[in-house]
Automatic annotation (TrEMBL):
Record keywords, A-Z: Cell membrane, Membrane, Transmembrane, Transmembrane helix
Subcellular location: Cell membrane
Main location (coarse class): membrane
Protein name: TVP38/TMEM64 family membrane protein
Homology family: Belongs to the TVP38/TMEM64 family.
PANTHER family attached to this UniProt entry: GOLGI APPARATUS MEMBRANE PROTEIN TVP38-RELATED, TVP38_TMEM64 FAMILY MEMBRANE PROTEIN
Top-level taxon in the UniProt lineage: Bacteria
Pfam families recorded: VTT_dom
Membrane-crossing segments per the record: 12-32, 52-80, 87-104, 136-159, 166-187
InterPro entries attached to this UniProt entry: TMEM64 (IPR015414), VTT_dom (IPR032816)
Organism encoding this protein: Streptococcus suis
Membrane topology category: Multi-pass membrane protein
Listed GO CC annotations: plasma membrane
Domain VTT: 67-184
Lineage: Bacteria, Bacillati, Bacillota, Bacilli, Lactobacillales
Length: 197
């Protein structure tokens, strides 16, 4: 049964990536993706429901890391603008990370292997033997916009790190990675367009 769920999630991950690519292409074709105002108006027309829906998506994409979280993070800034977009991204990702940490601690290695290969699991698990070194590694991953944050959160759930320490590190470090990742894609893509255009 476990192997079945492992394969199911792997297939869902692939289907989600394909579906995301198709969805983004469709948004581009109908003018939503390449016109920030159209996308913004679409979500804002939902009122508070739009913000709550986006917040839920951010939590879900962390807890079940088969949805490309980078896409939703950038969309948050584009649609809700900097401060509200930052707040929704930060809150959703932080809540999702805490839930993911709890799930990994509660269900252990088998839960982690639902979302990563054994090679990836053992690669990161080998780092937890040195407690101090791993804590520094964890902090750097939470600060970095390009680290495999969800994987590291799950592995951290298998360590002796307390909930209090995990939550403090997450709340202090996540703002930097959220902003850096979004700015990299938003302004990086604009720079690339200017360079190629």
């Amino acid at each position: 049964m476990y192997k079945f769920w492992q394969k199911t999630i792997q297939v869902l991950s692939i289907l989600t990536l394909i579906g995301t690519a198709i969805f983004l292409f469709w948004l581009y074709k109908i003018g939503i993706l390449n016109d920030q105002n159209v996308l913004s108006d679409l979500i804002k027309s939902q009122g508070a429901l739009g913000s709550l829906s986006f917040l839920a998506i951010q939590i879900i994409q962390v807890v079940f890391p088969i949805i490309p979280g980078g896409v939703t993070t950038v969309v948050g800034f584009l649609v809700f603008h900097f401060w509200w977009g930052f707040f929704l991204n930060y809150l959703g990702i932080s809540i999702g990370s805490i839930i993911l940490f709890w799930l990994a601690r509660r269900y252990g290695k088998k839960f982690c292997l639902l979302f990563m290969s054994e090679d990836t699991f053992y690669k990161y698990e080998s780092k937890i033997d040195n407690k101090r070194s791993y804590e520094i590694f964890f902090i750097l991953c939470m600060l970095s916009p390009i680290s495999p944050a969800d994987i590291v959160v799950m592995i951290t759930g298998l360590t002796s790190m307390s909930y209090r320490k995990f939550i403090i590190i997450t709340l202090l470090c996540r703002p930097f990675s959220v902003v850096a990742y979004s700015f990299f894609w938003i302004y990086g893509s604009q720079w690339l367009q200017q360079l190629l255009g």
